[in-house]
Amino acid sequence: MMPVAARTVCQMLQRRLASSAAAACLPPAELRSHRSALFSKELARQRSLYPRTEKIDVMLQGPGLQGTLLVMNRGLSTPYSCTRHLTEWHVKSSALALVDGQPWHMHRPLTHSCDLTLLTFKDDDPQIANQAYWRSCAALLGHVLDAAFKDEFSVELLKLPEVPVTAGAFCCDLVLDSRLDSWIPTEENMRSLTRDALQLIHKDLPWEPLEVSATVALEIFSHSRCKQEEVEERAAQSQNGTVSLYRCGDHVTVSGGPLVARTGLCSQYEVTSVHTVGECEWGVLRRAQGLSLPLNLTAHHKVWKMLRKRAERLVRNVCV
C-alpha cells in the first residue's frame, strides 16, 4: 500500500496537471475572476465554522490603550473591528496588529482571547509595520503588472522577493509572454504603471487575508505551475501546512508574511524600473521595482528625486 504522504503528493501532481490544462485557455481577466470566486467560496466556508456567537476578551496594549478591555466575537471580530470601538485615528492609522506578540493582519478574525497591540508607522519602533508595508507595496505592484498587458499576453508573477526597506526599492519578479521577450520598458511605461497603482491606492481597497490548506491554494492557482510550486514550498515550511493568501479587488496572491490593512495606507508611490535579470526555468526573468512612502510620511521633491534614482538601480542578492 502506498504511504499517505506519497499518495498525497501523487494526488497533488495529478490535480496540478489536470487543472493547469483546463485553465490554460482562460484569458488573464477570467483567471483573476476565477481565483477571486474560489477565494470567496473558501472564505464563506471558513466563516460558516462559527455558527454561534462566542465572546472573547481582547486586552489592548500600547500607549494610551494599556489595559483597555474589549469583548468581541470569536471568529468574526478582527483587529480592525476593535479599532472601530476606539477613535477615528486608530481606524485610519493602524497598519498591522500584534496578537499575543505575533504579527496579525488587521482583517484576520480573532479566534481566542488575547492581548492586542495596534501598529502604526509613527510608532517608536515601526520596523514590523515598515516591513509589512514594503511587502504590501510589492504585492500592489504585482496587482498592477498582472492587469497591465493585453489579454492576449500571459503574465506569470513569481514568488515575491523578501526585500528589506534598506534596499531602497521593493521588488516584484515576473515572466512575460515569450512574444514580449524583446520588450524594453520606456519612461511612459513606468508612468502608466504608476498611474494604475495610484488608482488602486485611491480606491483604498482592503487586503483580505485567508489562511488555506495547500489543496485549496493549488486549486486557486490551478493556472500557474510556478505559483503551485510556491504553494507547495510555503505549505511545507508552515507548521500547520497552510498557506497565506491575500485578495485586493479581484487579484489574489500568496504572501510569505503579513500585509498592511489597505491600499490607502500608501501615500507617495512610483514604479521606477523594470530590469531584465536573465533566464529562469519559466522564461525571461524580469524584476519590477518601485518606491513608496506611507500615509502621514512625505518627502520633499528633491529628497524624493534622490530616493527615486536609487530605486531605479537593480536590487540584487534578495531572498526569494
UniProtKB/TrEMBL annotation:
Keywords from the named record: Mitochondrion, Ribonucleoprotein, Ribosomal protein
Location relative to the cell: Mitochondrion
InterPro entries: Beta-grasp_dom_sf, Pro-tRNA_synthetase, Thr/Ala-tRNA-synth_IIc_edit
Spans through the membrane: none
Keyword Ligase: no
GO MF assignments: nucleotide binding; RNA binding
Entry keyword annotation includes Cell membrane: no
A GO cellular component entry from the record: ribonucleoprotein complex
Family membership: Belongs to the mitochondrion-specific ribosomal protein mL39 family.
Protein name: Large ribosomal subunit protein mL39
